[in-house]
């Protein structure tokens, strides 16, 4: 599901052709003129377009065709119409997977944004060694997910020897099962993702904070506003475009959550961490049911699309606050 | 503007070249189609996995095998090592794109699924004179589906219990007389718990092949037969569910067994009486040399049984050079090459005549002897589909949501559904 990545590419498309004074010249000379003027754009645009068509548009369209077939890896595929779509509406596990994914996003989106903002405020506050802290906070983002997940899994071991269990023990809290408890596992996985991603949301917020004009704070100071008030009256509202952008990307990534469940819980216990992408992967590559996996991927696409549109309607409109 | 034209031409040429070269790598030996046996030519691509930690020597071994084969048959062989991670994905996508290997490695729960999908070449027409009686029966069982042979086995494994002898002595067990059946095991496990140790590991987040099935087979039960008969909720099978539940309730197995993939830290840290392991564990333990350990025969309740995979090489049905590919599979799995392969990787040869390699290694020899009790998991096209629902039910049982009987019944229902599909 990389529809969003392509947005960037769309921006690179050539600008609208400038309306030129229609001189009476032959088509050939006009084309020549046009080419002389825009050739470089075409040269850069065409390969990207070809790449986009082959690796984005074609798979997207072909997977839609797949949903109506019983697709075989080798050999003849048969047309089955809406059979796979019908199966989706009766598949309890698929519904559970969607529900788990929604719960995961609730655990994940707001904390990621909040933590990213707090970290950005820390490094923007002019403390000493700001660059050092920026590096530390950003470290999980550039570290391999497999390694971060391994460490996380080790920390949250459900036995008495687990690091977090030992620490809880100091406060007299009894031993927890974490990843082996269906009520906790998803939250622990969300914690891992928050740790992994908040470094990059910090960078977005940091950029946003830097772009807020300093005189606003000076004026507020003269009016006698305290730091708390300045944050809620100036900083927070002026970060609105950043909030919107971060909200969209964290929402999308939360719906695509897969690797932590794959690495740490295998979808368990009792399917409590089976997310939609994990289920899709299982269906596709373990059960060789690629057509049904394609249906699930379209369901995911529809969900992400609808949520993004809603968010845009309610949050994205008025960025005329400046 | 001339420069622009040059740039464009260079770009196009580059694209063309890239397209050509990938074409060259992908298609292997298309030109040799129609070649009959004894008249082999062309090229084949073989995907192997890293079977031991010693990738350098493994590569040497494969290249030797390939060059000898090339000398004998005139077929050039490209050996490629594919990492274990996401191998299904890699193989399936390559095969679907028609650029897959001509020979690849498979295990018994993949084979019937792939065969049923029509993805594998039936090898029977090629097997005359291949001394098939030399293969162990338990290995041949794993490469046969619907009375056809779809692969030739190169390695076997036998899982059994490894005991930490320091703990056995400390809790008053007899290292010379380790548990042979469930009753003896339970007695020793209880003692281990009394002394603050875990008795054994239960990787509830791992494959059910090693975690659950051996207990079911030992109790005399079955999971799913070749004919599609579901046995996971029979009285015998439920006893296995009950045993696991008891072990969890009494904390003979660690509290995170519900989703744990392994308990290596606890075992290596000397906090666990026994683990289920195979050749690879033996290798690790012998290499570190820190633990005084012993391997014991698979346990028995009604039947002495354990899990042990059989690794085989198969030929996809869309191979461009099936004759050469089948010949190479025969060649890789002949007695001589099995000796070379298994000596290096410490797996157990599948040909009886190659099993002499462990004469100097008593522990490995002992382990090799247990292959007579091994079962390769469930041999059925749905073997892999049913694993996830079974796992969920076991987890629900361990979490206390279901009784062993209820979990087994629910698992049976899920299996029926998958098989009926």
From TrEMBL, chain A:
The keyword Transport applies. Residues 9-19 have a biased composition (Basic and acidic residues). It is a multi-pass membrane protein. It comes from the Bacteria. InterPro entries: ABC_transporter_permease, MetI-like, MetI-like_sf. Residues 1-28 are annotated as: Disordered. This is Carbohydrate ABC transporter membrane protein 1, CUT1 family. It comes from Salimicrobium halophilum.
From TrEMBL, chain B:
Residues 405-421 have a biased composition (Low complexity). Residues 1-18 form the signal peptide. GO terms for biological process: maltodextrin transmembrane transport; maltose transport. Residues 22-42, 397-421 are annotated as: Disordered. GO terms for molecular function: maltose binding. Pfam families: SBP_bac_8. Keywords: Signal, Sugar transport, Transport. One of its GO terms (cellular component) is ATP-binding cassette (ABC) transporter complex, substrate-binding subunit-containing. InterPro entries: SBP (IPR006059). It comes from the Bacteria. Belongs to the bacterial solute-binding protein 1 family. This is Multiple sugar transport system substrate-binding protein.
């Amino acid at each position: 599901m990389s529809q969003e990545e392509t947005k960037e590419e769309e921006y690179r498309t050539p600008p609208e052709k400038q309306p030129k004074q229609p001189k009476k010249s032959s088509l050939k000379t006009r084309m020549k003129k046009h080419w002389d003027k825009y050739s470089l754009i075409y040269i850069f645009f065409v390969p990207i377009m070809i790449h986009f068509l082959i690796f984005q548009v074609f798979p997207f369209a072909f997977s839609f065709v797949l949903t109506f077939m019983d697709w075989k890896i080798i050999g003849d595929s048969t047309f089955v119409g809406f059979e796979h779509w019908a199966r989706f509406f009766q598949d309890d596990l698929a519904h559970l997977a969607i529900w788990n994914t929604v719960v995961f996003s609730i655990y994940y989106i707001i904390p990621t944004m909040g933590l990213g903002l707090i970290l950005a405020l820390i490094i923007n506050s002019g403390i000493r060694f700001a660059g050092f802290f920026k590096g530390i906070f950003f470290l999980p983002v550039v570290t391999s997910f497999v390694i971060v997940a391994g460490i996380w899994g080790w920390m949250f071991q459900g036995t008495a020897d687990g690091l977090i269990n030992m620490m809880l023990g100091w406060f007299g809290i009894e031993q927890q099962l974490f990843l082996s408890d269906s009520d906790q596992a998803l939250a622990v996985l969300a914690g891992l993702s928050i740790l992994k991603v908040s470094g990059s949301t910090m960078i977005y917020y940091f950029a946003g904070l830097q772009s807020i004009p300093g005189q606003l704070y000076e004026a507020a100071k003269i009016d006698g506003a305290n730091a708390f008030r300045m944050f809620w009256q100036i900083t927070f509202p002026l970060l609105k475009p950043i909030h919107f952008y971060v909200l969209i990307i964290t929402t999308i990534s939360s719906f695509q959550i897969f690797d932590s469940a794959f690495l740490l819980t295998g979808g368990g216990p009792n399917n409590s961490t089976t997310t939609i992408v994990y289920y899709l992967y299982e269906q596709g590559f373990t059960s060789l049911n690629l057509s049904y996996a394609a249906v699930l991927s379209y369901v995911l696409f529809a969900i992400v699309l609808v949520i993004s549109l809603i968010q845009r309607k309610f949050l994205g409109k008025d960025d005329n606050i400046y | 503007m001339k420069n622009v034209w040059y740039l464009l031409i260079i770009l196009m040429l580059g694209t063309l070249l890239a397209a050509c070269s990938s074409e060259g790598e992908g298609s292997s030996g298309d030109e040799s189609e129609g070649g009959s046996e004894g008249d082999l030519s062309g090229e084949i691509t073989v995907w192997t996995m890293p079977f031991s930690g010693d990738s350098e020597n493994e590569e040497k071994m494969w290249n030797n095998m390939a060059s000898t084969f090339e000398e004998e048959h005139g077929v050039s062989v490209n050996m490629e090592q594919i990492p274990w991670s996401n191998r299904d994905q890699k193989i399936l996508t390559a095969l679907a794109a028609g650029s897959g290997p001509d020979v690849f490695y498979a295990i018994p729960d993949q084979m019937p699924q792939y065969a049923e999908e029509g993805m594998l070449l039936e090898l029977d027409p090629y097997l005359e004179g291949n001394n098939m009686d030399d293969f162990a029966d338990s290995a041949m069982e794993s490469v046969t589906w619907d009375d056809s042979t779809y692969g030739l086995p190169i390695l076997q494994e036998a899982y059994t219990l490894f005991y930490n002898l320091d703990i056995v002595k400390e809790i008053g067990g007899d290292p010379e007389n380790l548990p042979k059946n469930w009753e003896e095991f339970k007695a020793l496990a209880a003692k281990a718990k009394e002394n603050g140790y875990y008795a054994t590991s239960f990787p509830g987040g791992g494959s059910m092949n090693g975690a659950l099935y051996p207990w079911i087979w030992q109790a005399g039960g079955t999971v799913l037969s070749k004919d599609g008969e579901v046995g996971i909720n029979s009285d015998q099978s439920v006893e296995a569910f009950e045993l696991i539940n008891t072990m969890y309730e009494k904390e003979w197995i660690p509290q995170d067994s519900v989703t744990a993939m392994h308990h290596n830290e606890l075992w290596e840290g000397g906090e666990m009486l026994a683990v289920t392991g195979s050749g690879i564990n033996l290798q690790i333990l012998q290499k570190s040399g820190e633990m005084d350990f012993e391997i014991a025969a698979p346990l028995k309740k009604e039947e002495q049984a354990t899990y042990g995979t059989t690794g085989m090489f198969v030929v996809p049905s869309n191979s461009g050079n099936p004759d050469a590919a089948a010949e190479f599979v025969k060649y890789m799995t002949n007695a001589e090459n099995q000796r070379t392969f298994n000596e290096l990787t410490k797996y157990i040869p599948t040909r009886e005549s190659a099993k002499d390699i462990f004469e100097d290694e008593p522990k490995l020899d002992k382990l090799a002897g247990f292959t007579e009790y091994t079962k390769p998991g469930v041999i059925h096209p749905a073997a892999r589909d049913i694993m996830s629902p079974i796992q969920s039910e076991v987890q629900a049982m361990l979490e206390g949501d279901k009784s062993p009987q209820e979990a087994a019944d629910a698992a049976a229902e899920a299996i029926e559904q998958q098989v009926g599909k």
